[in-house]
């Protein structure tokens, strides 16, 4: 272990794990101790108690996780392939049509894929359900991740009316709770109705059919859909938009990726999942994107439910008595154990593992002894232990497919101004919990007439 691999902030009873080895040892191997989540009054007040991400390590969590694992497990992930081919193709069309809306297009892919795979619904970005969902995800991200600091410090304020000084958060919480209800109900009811009327079936509707007599399970199925819509949106969108930005800034790497696809697959068809193992350079690009630009750089904190020790250090469950003397102590911290933050950003930039860690160098995965085809379970961007992302197999295949399709058909370059000069791309990213590129202008065109034909011809086959 190196100095700085493990940082303990006593006042907050918070442990920051900056090295992958420590995260694997604690969160990955001692799962009985490190699988809880922080308790938050904000979550409770806003109706976030239905979202698995915030659950304690409890039977409730286990029953939700079981449904997630059933729906998104590796062995049946190929049932989603047709939807992924179709939706990623839609993304290519949108990128060529309006390249100035890259962020909207990548978000539309992330969300529409969940609607079609889970609910069997082909929902466009301008459908009221989709617009409501996008708005909810946006507010949700802002509210939950910052929390209501006044409420966290003075939880008794939750009993006061919203006009009470400092209680403006109650109105926001109320509105968000209603939006989450809509997200729970609207697509779910449409999916079930489609099954009943014979209009179409879906994963959710079939699960409901199998559990018709079990209202508690039906509630879990409904909440699984809501949590998936929320958890899939910013994350998948982040990885794909990071790829589009980074590859635009690295035309040399784009050309190498295109050359591999041309050599292995040719120019008369699009890549498929069956081609994945034959495309090591494309794989290396995917791995390098997940390394250099993890969508959730600080992961989602785990909480220790027991006292523990590691490498001679004591990791306390309870709240450090020293901090009780500090003025700004959060009351909720009396209740929970040590918060463990997996600093994925730092792990992925560990200079002992990655030379020149701030540079985008896909070749590092080709040259590594294990090669580029890492298991999705070894990609730190998807988290650790029992709380590892249950959507990682669909996320992994969606991001990979997008990379392969884009390289096969498109040229991404800096756009030109009226004088023919390159328009600079600052390459900035947000500094938010979910990190993604700031909007930018670029040129996105089919590589040539053959690529244009390929996109259109395949679109007709949908
Ligand atoms: C590139 C895309 C994605 C990335 C990078 C990502 C990353 C993560 C991370 C870092 C966590 C926290 C893991 C931990 O606590 O250690 C997580 C949790 C979660 N993810 Fe993902 N995710 C992605 C896509 C998805 C998708 C498509 C779904 C849809 C099913 C999903 C559903 C969830 C859920 C439900 C949790 C909470 C699990 C729990 O607390 O038990 N994610 N994800």
From TrEMBL:
Pathway: Secondary metabolite biosynthesis
Keyword presence, Repressor: no
GO molecular function, one term: monooxygenase activity
Keyword Coiled coil: no
Membrane-protein topology: Single-pass membrane protein
Subcellular location field: Membrane
PANTHER family: CYTOCHROME P450 MONOOXYGENASE ALNH-RELATED, P450, PUTATIVE (EUROFUNG)-RELATED-RELATED
Protein family according to the UniProt entry: Belongs to the cytochrome P450 family.
UniProt-recorded name of the protein: Cytochrome P450
Organism in which the protein naturally occurs: Rhodocollybia butyracea
């Amino acid at each position: 272990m190196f100095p700085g691999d493990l940082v303990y902030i006593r006042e907050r009873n918070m442990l920051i794990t900056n090295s992958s080895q420590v995260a694997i040892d604690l969160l990955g191997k001692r799962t009985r101790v490190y699988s809880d989540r922080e308790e938050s009054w904000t979550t409770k007040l806003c109706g976030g108690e239905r979202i698995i991400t915030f659950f304690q390590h409890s039977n409730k969590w286990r029953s939700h996780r079981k449904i997630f694992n059933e729906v998104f497990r590796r062995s049946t992930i190929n049932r989603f392939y047709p939807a992924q081919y179709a939706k990623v193709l839609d993304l290519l069309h949108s990128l060529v049509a309006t390249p100035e809306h890259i962020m909207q297009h990548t978000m539309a892919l992330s969300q529409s894929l969940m609607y079609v795979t889970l609910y069997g619904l082909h929902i466009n970005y301008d459908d009221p359900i989709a617009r409501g969902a996008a708005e909810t995800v946006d507010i949700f991200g802002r509210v939950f991740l910052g929390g209501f600091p006044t409420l966290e410090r003075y939880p008794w304020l939750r009993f006061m009316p919203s006009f009470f000084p400092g209680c403006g958060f109650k109105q926001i919480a109320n509105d968000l709770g209603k939006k989450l209800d809509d997200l729970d109900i609207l697509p779910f009811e449409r999916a079930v109705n489609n099954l009943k009327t014979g209009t179409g079936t879906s994963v959710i509707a079939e699960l409901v059919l199998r559990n018709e007599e079990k209202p508690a399970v039906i509630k879990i199925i409904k909440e699984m859909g809501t949590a998936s819509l929320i958890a899939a949106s910013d994350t998948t969108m982040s990885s794909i938009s990071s790829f589009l930005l980074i590859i635009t800034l690295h035309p040399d790497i784009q050309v190498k990726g295109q050359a591999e696809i041309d050599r292995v697959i040719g120019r008369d068809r699009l890549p498929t999942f069956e081609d994945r193992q034959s495309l090591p350079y494309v794989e290396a690009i995917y791995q390098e994107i997940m390394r250099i630009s993890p969508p959730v750089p600080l992961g989602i904190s785990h909480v220790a439910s027991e006292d523990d020790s590691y490498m001679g250090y004591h990791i306390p469950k309870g709240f450090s008595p020293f901090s009780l003397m500090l003025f700004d102590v959060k009351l909720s911290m009396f209740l929970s154990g040590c918060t463990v933050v997996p600093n994925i950003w730092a792990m992925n930039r560990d200079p002992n593992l990655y030379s020149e860690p701030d540079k985008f160098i896909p070749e590092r995965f080709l040259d590594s002894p294990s090669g580029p085809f890492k298991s999705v379970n070894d990609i730190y961007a998807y988290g650790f232990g029992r709380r590892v992302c249950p959507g990682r197999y669909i996320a992994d295949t969606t991001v990979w497919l997008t990379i392969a399709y884009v390289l096969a058909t498109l040229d991404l370059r800096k756009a030109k101004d009226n004088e023919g000069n390159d328009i600079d791309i600052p390459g900035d990213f947000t500094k938010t919990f979910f990190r993604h590129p700031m909007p930018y202008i670029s040129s996105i065109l089919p590589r040539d007439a053959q690529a244009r034909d390929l996109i259109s011809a395949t679109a007709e086959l949908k």
